[in-house]
């Protein structure tokens, strides 16, 4: 798949995440951020010919998390992206998954923004 297509997908997901946050829908913002992260991760894995089981966001983030050759900060962000929300639908730590997703894209050298 052409990189510019993935860059457009990434931009769309991040724009949706930002819009959802502006509308007060933090849950939707997190979902969009995770999907954006998965797009950057898929590009990273494909460019290095690293196999992955599926292209869904959870599996791609999990693959990056378990990849010892990936940058440590990228794996740390992947762990944050997989943190479950509490019963009141908030993250247990003060994490900004939108900012972390942008950091991840930069770390993985996915020039999308």
Could you explain how this protein is built, in words?
This protein has one domain (3-107): Four Helix Bundle (Hemerythrin (Met), subunit A) (Up-down Bundle), CATH 1.20.120.330. Helix content is 64%, strand content 0%. The protein has helices at 3-22, 26-47, 57-65, 72-81, 97-107. Helix 1 packs antiparallel against helix 2 (26-47), helix 2 (26-47) crosses helix 3 (57-65) and helix 3 packs antiparallel against helix 4 (72-81). The longest helix has 22 residues, at 26-47.
Which features would summarize this protein structure in a list?
Four Helix Bundle (Hemerythrin (Met), subunit A); single chain; 0% strand; 113 residues; globular
């Amino acid at each position: 798949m052409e990189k510019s297509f993935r860059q457009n997908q990434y931009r769309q997901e991040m724009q949706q995440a930002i819009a959802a946050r502006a509308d007060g829908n933090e849950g939707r913002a997190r979902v969009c951020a995770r999907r954006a992260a998965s797009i950057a991760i898929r590009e990273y894995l494909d460019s290095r010919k690293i196999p992955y089981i599926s292209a869904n966001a959870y599996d791609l983030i999990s693959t990056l998390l378990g990849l010892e050759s990936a940058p440590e900060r990228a794996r740390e962000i992947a762990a944050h992206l997989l943190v479950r929300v509490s019963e009141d639908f908030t993250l247990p730590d003060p994490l900004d998954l939108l900012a972390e997703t942008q950091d991840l894209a930069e770390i993985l050298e996915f020039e999308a923004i």
